[in-house]
Every structure is written in C-alpha cells, then in structure tokens.
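Example (one chain per record):
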Amino acid sequence: MIAFESAIQLAEGIRNKDISSRELTELYIERIEKYDDQINAVVVRTFAEARAAADAADAALARGAFFGEDQRAGGSGGLSELQPYIRYNR
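Predicted structure:
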C-alpha cells in the first residue's frame, strides 16, 4: 500500500510520474480525516496550504525542476513554520 512506502520511494514515484504530488497529498489528507479522530495525531490541519504546495511542486516538476531526497535547506517543516496558523486563546 502506497501510504506505507518510504519518503524516498514516494519521491521516486513522483519523479517517475507514477503519482502526482497532489494525488499523494489527497491520499494522506483522506487518511488524516479517516483516522485522526481515533489517534488524535494532527494538531493543525493546513490542508489548503498542503494542496497549494502540492500543486506548486507538480508545476515545478512539469517545468523540469528536480526534487532530491534532501530538501532541508528549504525549511525544516517544523512547528516554527506553522506559527502563523496557530491561534492562542489568552
């Protein structure tokens, strides 16, 4: 099942055009919506942003951009990047 493949395998599938970034993003969004009530693992749901990023990645790939396995220079994807989306109740 594709949902359990490694990040390297998924990236290869995207590069080989076996699956698009948008399709993969939708798959994981569907899994979050299906299972998160049971496991309570997703704190902030930024689905619109994820879809936009997937569309941008697909467009870049169509223009010939290469996405390697190590994209850390572009951002860690950590909590600090989500700060604009977090609302505090004070």
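Caption: The radius of gyration is 15 Å.
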